[in-house]
Fold each of these.
Amino acid sequence: MPHKASAALEQLNLAAKLADLKEDHYRTLLTIGAVTELLIDKGLIAPEELELKIRSLDSELDELISASLHPMP
């Protein structure tokens, strides 16, 4: 029986950690969204510039992931 209780407690702890991560993720996205809107509202960055940068970074990340999954011989 102690093993079942231990496993249940471990699952409960994991669920709590996941909930904390979700909250952190939400707060991070909210902050990024607010900063982005402020930069655009103040004319410091154009929405088109932001989209171009997002696409560029996404492409670079895809290349890095692909290279790490398929290293050259």
Note: The radius of gyration is 21 Å.
Amino acid sequence: MYRSFGLIEVIGFVTAAACIDAMVKSAFVELHDMKRTGSGLITIIIKGDLASVKEALELGAETAHRHGKVVAMKVIARPYPGLERLLDPEEKGEKE
């Protein structure tokens, strides 16, 4: 069971791809989703245990700084179930 989410927002698709590659290779995390939020901004959402998510985000930010720019980064430990449904709309339909 995944207990934490990590979000990192970067500018540019190449930066996002490099960031995702580094994160999934560095720690036991899974890519949950990637959303284009407009104006070249891409939000990457990963999930995993808290320590792995923190480690992956640190390395992802480091990689993103080399290739482009990090706009924001956030770890959400033990998210409220309502927030989980917002981040995972496909799962919402299965639970209802």
Note: Residues 92-96 have pLDDT under 50 and may be disordered.
Amino acid sequence: MGKHFDDAAGKGKEAFGKVTGDRGTEFEGKADQAKAGAKDAADKAKGKAEELKDKAEDAFESAGEKIKDVFKKK
């Protein structure tokens, strides 16, 4: 399931638990929301890591080209 669905389902479960006085369901809903938040954070971290990897590859490629240019001039 998607992180947005997990968050919404968790909120619903938490609300249901509060209304019915079922603390277990309430806490289960909070746990579902926390899980959705963790998925979101992991997705953001993965995206940032991929972005940094691409930047590093570009930097190495650029540095390699500059080194080649230096040796061509000699």
Note: The mean pLDDT is 91.
